[in-house]
Structure formats: structure tokens, C-alpha cells
Design a protein that fits this description.
By secondary structure, this protein is of the alpha/beta class. It has 19 helices and 6 strands.
């Protein structure tokens, strides 16, 4: 059940603090709290909840603020709660009325929140951040245009807006595209290691089923676990085992696992129909994966190959797939492949997330349409690497008058005296637009090395999606705070100008030199102010 009251940002002096504690209004959490559209984020978050049924939920600002704090500090759920409990600035950030020594919620709440917040919720969060940035930029433009007028008077074109209408271009702005992999925090998978883990899980299932068997206990099925463990360690401890020894060890582990799976099927058949299994839920989910893993490993062993379709690389996270990237020192990555778009304001958005290996160039059309949905027009140019420059994508962009920044297909034109200057201009333009891809590469570096985008520690597919989107939300909020601070600084500058203008009206000309020297004005600005 939803329980939320709209937030007019509480002032810092109204925040209850212990005696003797004075909070700094320039603290980073206070400044970030001032520019976040809390009401818009809460409205998007409440769409996942029921308005009439269920237990009253935590305040949306507390939940969203905790998610931001967690990924801004790159800490665990337990550490996030402890940081909030100890820090009054963080308690002010999440909307509490005063400092309290008691934790506002349990760490397990963040797990439930990640299950609830899907891609749609974070898309709306991103739209709210874009709207806030555009609104603040428009406010600055209005103030700048008002400052250009003399004595507050409008020109003739301002008085008659119908005669000075400016046509909005059909295409505007640049869309920067790229893709990367958000790696999961898993052990590097090997065939022998996966089979050994599957065998140990099957032995644990046999132990539990035998203990809770409803029938009179017979002899416990033999698993040969000691021999199997010894055979695995004999190969695992070798630095570079030969291919023959490795295949022999895999064959042994396949035999042990096949025997255990047969025992489990017999023991499950003996369980009463209609009653829950005596296995914990986490172990049941892993048991569902074991037959698929055995079939894949057996087919690869029989065919003597090292690849198969939808290959399982983690028993606890069966949705992961190996994604071949060909990077230096890391040819294969294990995680979600994300297609990201970056706008001119350095706002990043996860347009598509794949768990299977796929070609990122197929996402270009959907990303361009998403750009039009956000801003109301198509981009002027799409800046991406060569993988996005397929014939289908180029044809799609050409029909919508969108320029692709890559090198044109086909044989390059022959240089002549007539087209030499044009070819040089196009080459320089391509080189410049290729450099404009640097910000999105920097955004990936910021996410991976600043906020652990390359170490996603969520176990489920839905919670991993929320984890990845929360990191990009934090990076976009930092951009929003920079825009907010620039607007605040710009407003203060305008106020200083207006104050100086009002002083100059009542100041003697002989004192102007002393007035400007105190404020370090330059000579051109002195002349302009004297004319004013």
C-alpha cells in the first residue's frame, strides 16, 4: 500500500540535530538533494505498488535515496544502512525530519526494492532527470536573454513574437552510441570446475532427501565423493594439465554426476505427491540447472568441442552467457551486454540490455526512435563505431535525414582538383566526430572503475538489471547537480550585475575608477557600465 506525501524540500535549518551540531549547507549531499526531482521519482516508483492493498510501504524518498547512496559510495547493503544511521547528512538526504540513531530500515529491504524496480521504472527516472536538466537550461537561457536587453526594455521583435518565429529544425543534436558488458562477480568458469560444483550440489541434495525420506530407511546411495574429490584435485592443482588428462578428469566427473542424478530421481519419485519437497528453495533452483549442465557438458565431451548454444557458465546464475569481446587481456566476458546512448549533456541511458551475446548494431534503430520519443525530433547525426555502420542502418538513417559519422561504404572516390577540398573537409569532420565518442568511453570507465559496473554482485537477473540502471542513475544525477550549480552561479552573477548597475546610477563619475578597482573589472566592462 502506498504511503507518501509530496516533498517540498525541507530546509537545512529545520532539520533536527543533536545540540552543538551545525550542518554545512554546502555539503555534497545537501546540494545533491536540492536538485533531485523527488516527487517525479516517487511517482514512477509507486507504479510498481498497489494503492489499496498490502502493508504500508516505506517512504519512496527513503528507498530511492538509499539506492542512490549505495551506488554513490559503492558499498554493500549492510554498509549502506550503517552509513545512513551514523551520518546526519545522509539522513537529511533521504528525507528524515531529524537525526536518529536507529536504522530507518533493514538491509534486506534493498533486495526487495531491486526485485521491484525494473527497466521501466528506471526509464521514467531517466526521463525525469532529462526534464530537470532541460528546464534548468531553459531557465538560464531566459535569464541570459533578459540580461541582454537595455534598461529592461524589449525590442520590436520581442514585442511582436508572431513576426519573429524561428522554425525548429527537424533534426537536432547528436546521438552517441556504444555498447559494453557489465560483468558479474562470478568465478571464472571452467568445464571441470562446473562439473565438480554440480557434483557437490547433487551430493548435498542426496543427503537431505535421505534424511527426510518418508519410507523406511534403506541403505544410503553411494556417491564416491571422496574419490571424486581426490580425482578433481589431482588435475586442479596442476598448473598446465595436458588435454588428455583434462578430458579424462571431465569424463570421471560426468560419470559421478550422472550416477547422482539417477539417485535423486529415484528418491524424488518416492516423495508423497502433493507435499512440498524437503529441499530449500535455493537448492531446488540449482537442481533444475544440473540436468541441463550435464547434457551440455556431455555433448561437448562427446564431440570434443568447447562451445555450445546457451552455454551455462554459473549454476547459481544460469542466465549468464559467455560474451566474446576480443578485448586486450580479456577475450571473453560474463555479464549483461548493454547498449548505451549519450546525449550532448553527457546524460547516459541504458537503451537495451541483453543476457545473450548479440550484435550491438541491431539496436541502433530502436535507440534512434527512443531519442525521438524523448525530445520530439530525430538527431542530426549518429556518432558510433564501425559496427553500427551496416547497410540496413545506413539506409534507415538516410531516410530520416540523419548523418552517420563513420566512413562511407564502397570504394573511396578518386581525389581530383575539384573535390580535393571537399574530401579534406569530410575527412576532418569524421576525425572530429570520432573524437566526440570519447565521452561515452569515459562514461563506461567512470561506471566500471568508479562505481563498480564491472563487478555486479546481484544474483538474480532482475536485481542485476536494477543494479546496472542504478549506477547510470547516479552518474546522471551528478550531471544534474553540475547543471544546477552552474545555474546557481549564473544567477548569483546576474544578481551582482543588477546590484552594481543600481549602485552606478547614484555614483559620481570621479569615484568610478575607485569603484571598478575594488571589484577588479576590466576596461571594456568599465566602458559598458559607464554607458549604462
Amino acid at each position: 500500500m502506498i504511503r507518501y506525501s509530496g516533498h517540498n524540500q525541507p530546509t537545512l535549518p529545520g532539520f533536527d540535530t543533536p545540540p552543538g551540531m551545525i550542518l554545512d549547507p554546502n555539503n555534497r549531499w545537501v546540494r545533491l538533494s536540492d536538485c533531485i526531482p523527488w516527487d517525479n521519482l516517487a511517482q514512477s516508483y509507486h507504479k510498481t505498488l498497489s494503492a489499496t492493498s498490502g502493508r504500508p510501504c516505506k517512504d519512496a524518498r527513503i528507498v530511492i535515496g538509499a539506492i542512490i547512496i549505495k551506488h554513490k559510495l559503492s558499498v554493500s547493503d549492510e554498509e549502506t544502512v550503517e552509513q545512513i544511521r551514523e551520518n546526519p547528512y545522509l539522513q537529511y538526504f533521504i528525507g528524515l525530519k531529524g537525526f536518529q540513531s536507529k536504522a530507518p530500515f533493514a538491509p534486506s529491504l534493498l533486495v526487495e526494492v531491486r526485485k521491484r524496480m525494473g527497466q521501466g521504472v528506471f526509464d521514467e527516472f531517466h526521463e525525469a532527470v532529462i526534464e530537470s536538466v532541460e528546464r534548468k537550461k531553459a531557465k538560464r537561457v531566459i535569464k541570459d536573454s533578459d540580461d541582454d536587453g537595455s534598461n529592461g526594455t524589449r525590442s520590436s521583435t520581442d514585442a511582436e513574437p508572431d513576426k519573429a518565429k524561428v522554425d525548429v529544425p527537424q533534426n537536432h543534436g547528436k546521438l552517441i552510441l556504444d555498447a559494453t558488458v557489465a560483468e558479474q562477480a562470478i568465478r571464472y568458469p571452467t568445464d571441470l570446475g562446473l562439473l565438480n560444483e554440480a557434483r557437490e550440489l547433487s551430493e548435498r541434495i542426496i543427503d537431505i532427501l535421505y534424511t527426510h525420506s518418508p519410507q523406511p530407511r534403506t541403505k544410503k546411495p553411494r556417491t564416491y565423493r571422496q574419490n571424486a574429490r581426490k580425482a578433481f584435485l589431482n588435475i586442479a592443482k596442476q598448473k598446465r594439465p595436458t588435454n588428455r588428462k583434462r578430458r579424462a578428469a571431465i569424463r570421471q566427473q560426468l560419470q559421478y554426476l550422472r550416477r547422482n542424478l539417477k539417485h535423486i530421481e529415484v528418491m524424488l519419485t518416492a516423495c508423497p505427491y502433493g507435499q512440498p519437497l524437503p529441499l530449500p528453495n535455493w537448492l531446488i533452483r540449482r537442481y533444475w540447472v544440473l540436468p541441463h549442465l550435464y547434457n551440455q557438458q556431455y555433448e561437448m565431451y562427446k564431440a570434443n568441442v568447447r562451445r555450445c548454444d546457451d552455454r551455462i557458465v554459473s549454476i547459481s546464475q544460469p542466465h549468464l552467457r559467455p560474451i566474446v569481446r576480443g578485448k586486450l587481456g580479456k577475450a571473453v566476458e560474463f555479464g549483461a551486454k548493454i547498449s548505451v546512448s549519450l546525449t550532448g549533456d553527457k546524460l547516459a541511458h541504458v537503451d537495451k540490455l541483453h543476457w545473450d551475446a548479440c550484435h550491438e548494431g541491431h539496436d541502433l534503430q530502436s535507440q534512434v526512435e527512443a531519442y525521438k520519443k524523448r525530445y520530439g525530433y530525430y538527431p542530426e547525426a549518429v556518432i558510433a563505431d564501425r559496427l553500427y555502420g551496416s547497410r540496413d542502418n545506413r539506409s534507415y538513417l538516410e531516410k530520416r535525414n540523419i548523418r552517420f559519422s563513420g566512413k562511407p561504404l564502397g570504394r573511396p572516390p578518386k581525389a581530383t582538383t575539384e573535390n580535393q577540398d571537399e574530401l579534406k573537409r569530410l575527412k576532418a569532420q569524421r576525425r572530429q566526430e570520432y573524437r566526440e565518442r570519447i565521452p561515452i568511453e569515459g562514461k563506461f570507465g567512470q561506471g566500471k572503475y568508479g562505481y563498480r559496473l564491472n563487478n555486479i554482485r546481484a544474483r538474480r537477473a532482475d536485481t542485476s538489471i536494477a543494479w546496472i540502471n542504478a549506477i547510470f542513475l547516479v552518474m546522471n544525477l551528478l550531471v544534474l547537480m553540475q547543471v544546477f550549480l552552474r545555474l546557481k552561479k549564473f544567477t548569483l552573477t546576474m544578481m551582482c550585475r543588477v546590484t552594481n548597475f543600481s549602485i552606478l546610477r547614484n555614483i559620481e563619475p570621479a569615484c568610478c575608477h575607485q569603484f571598478f578597482s575594488r571589484r577588479n573589472y576590466c576596461l571594456p566592462r568599465q566602458a559598458a557600465l559607464m554607458n549604462f
